[in-house]
Amino acid sequence: MYIGVLLAGNKKIQALNKKYLGRDYPTDVLAFNYAEGEKKKPGNYLGDVAVSVEKAKEQAQKYGNTPEKEIAELVAHGVLHLLGVHHKGDGK
């Protein structure tokens, strides 16, 4: 099983958030699961995780992390979403 990871700026994350989720603002992490639904891809491709490096840097300061640790935690958060773990109120 494998995933794609995109590290991008707020502008790119906002564009993805708006295009695919209808939310016109940047966020720290997005997860796109390709193992189900109409976007299903063949093989062991689970999906993509997109992380805002700008948001990660802001959050690293806030939480006392290094930017690298914050990015790693956001990637892990995205992977959990790909595996079906969601927030309360996500409708899933």
TrEMBL record:
Full protein name: Putative rRNA maturation factor
Nuclease among keywords: yes
InterPro entries: MetalPrtase_cat_dom_sf_prd, YbeY
Keywords noted in UniProt: Endonuclease, Hydrolase, Metal-binding, Nuclease, Zinc
Keyword Metal-binding belongs to the record: yes
GO BP annotations listed: rRNA processing
Similarity comment: Belongs to the endoribonuclease YbeY family.
Cofactor names: Zn(2+)
GO function term, MF aspect, one: metalloendopeptidase activity
Domain of life: Bacteria
